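TA notes. Do not distribute before section.
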Amino acid sequence: MKIKVKKMPRTIPGIIKIINESNDMDTIETMENYIGCYYGVLILLIGAIVNFMLHHELKSSVLDSVFMLLLCSCFVITPYLKLKTRIITHWISVLFSVVLIFVTVRIYDYMGPAIWTVAFLNIIISSIRTTRVMLNYVTVSILFVSIYYSLVLSRIPFEYGTEYYATQIFLIAFIVVITPFLHLINRTHYNRVNHMYMTEVKQRVELEKMYHDIAATHAELRLKYDELNEKNKELKRNEEKLYHMAHYDLITELPNRKTIMDRIHELIEESKTKAVYFYMVFIDIDSFKKINDTMGHHVGDLFIKQAADRFKKNIDKEDLIGRIGGDEFALVIQRNLRREEALFYLDRIRMEFIKPFIIGDNKINTSASFGVAAFPADGVNHSELVKNADAAMYKAKELGKNNIQFFTDSMEK
């Protein structure tokens, strides 16, 4: 959780509270910088006052106090600088390094080996931070102090007086006071990291559970999808089957009466926008009743199927043949043929049809009568065409069967 800090907390517990409640590293680093500023201000302010009170008669000591107050003001204004957090971290680290080096070079006469206590404090403060920026600066500054001490200060005799012990006691007391806060900060860091870890573990468990749930849901959805897909295929097959049953004859697989009549309607509608000529032909098989009566309906059905195959085999691919009743077929000649061409075409079909049919051990000889009505000469609607084609077919029956008759006005009379 990212905590937006509107203003700098005034107390160490307030800072620790924000660190404890935040999982945002930038916020945590900002709060650590605040702690560094508090520490820096306190040390430098006390150091400047004590140094001035004890050595105000020395001009150099007064200047040292002024410089410490200047460094103190740098710590005071740092939290209010509108800079990136990482830049502020580097800036505070530089200030701490300058303080350590300044104490070593300028106040060694009063502090003596106590400077190592100051260095130890710096190490403690920088070690608890989430980043290692300040620790790097402090390490370099302590290295410089060590070199300076070995080259210069080791040759200067130091007298352990009241000022040294007072300074050392103050620093030790400061360490004792600051240790609980440092412990609290470390514990806060641990609690935060542990909380983040446990949160991640919990989220991982939840994600795994969600993954398993999603996988199970996906498998279930896939099963449902397959079932629906199969149902859809079955419905489509049934729909096609019902369509076929509604538009095709079950025995011959030829278009039925409805399909033939629908096609007649379509051609008549087309004639309203363009010139259309076609023939409606009724075909009735001669003596079919004798086949059923003498050989049985089973043979009759097989004969009808063979008759349909023979018709289909001999008609033009542009024409439409269908079964409209027991032994009656209808042929729609959808081409613009002259009467002579249509007669020649139908006579060829008739001659092919009179060839013997072989059904099992039975040889069947039969014929067909053809009645023809032309559109638009013999009718401008399907009722007239059907009636006139039927009349022509019955005329062919009257004339001895096995012949072709075109509709004439005399037939209507």
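Switch to the second chain here.
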Amino acid sequence: MPPVSGSGYRIFMPIDESLSVQLGEKTPAPSIRYCPVRKNNCVFPLKELSKDEAYIVSDFELAEELIARGADSARIAIAPHDSNENQYLGYSQIAAGKQLVPPSPFDFKQSIVIVLPTYNERANLEALVPAISQYLVTDILIVDDNSPDGTGELADQFSGTHGHVHVLHRSKKEGLGPAYLAGFKWALHRNYSLIIEMDCDFSHAPWDLPRLVHRSRTADLVIGSRYVPGGGTENWNASRRFVSRCGNTYASLFLGSTIHDWTGGFRCYRRELLTRMNLATVRTKGYIFQVELASRAVQLGADVVELPIRFCDRIEGQSKLGWQSIAEALIEVPKMYLLGLGGR
């Protein structure tokens, strides 16, 4: 059958059944049928993947083109040019129709640390640390604000058995901003090249971590964005969507439209950018902390890029976004503009 036409790529159909994969012996993983996508001079409409299908591409650039057009990043296998051409055959699915898991985590040969602020996140942390390790070779710093549910103790257990996991204990809960600043300070003292921030509640997908790191090769700050083509939210009610949209619109009114997702908290910073930000003068404590750091990056002339992500509502626990955070945003964003932190 001839290729189906679309935007700069060719997708070969029907799917080659010989590419199906059956992994595992005792508990076989669901088999995968791959839709290979290659660069070409024609375009094709994205197909509705069945539960046993996934796209396979040769590099991150092709993956980003698909994701920007609406493809699910969880269902794209990437076989880099410098890898064994059959490497992707090792991809598996944790369940039919769920995200793909690579045969080994992506190793970018860089010193990377992920900063995870936690407060009562024991259930999520127990699953997230192993999940991260499936997708990326990286250190993990857990910044715990003396969680009463035992999150800190669990973090210590991980640290005791996994050399790439570290723990920073703080005496009390002071807000998202101070927790991240403590984590950034810890990371900068240890000369990591890339410093990633993400939520501990699976709102940010571990399988998107390699995308952020790859894009950081040509950017100072990479933001996982809900509000660029291909991005979005899942399992949000109307009020949550409204608050998020209003928050970003409010930030853009004062700080400009350079960034679409000012409040996004899934980010990869180059250490050089963080060292230029004068973090000791950061004032904000709640979720508006993300806006302040993004505005500082813009003001410094940093190369900021946004990659589309699908932000999913937390799996365990309750959202920590409250009226105090909203009030802080209403007050602090105009201050950023007046103090010259805006990116106009």
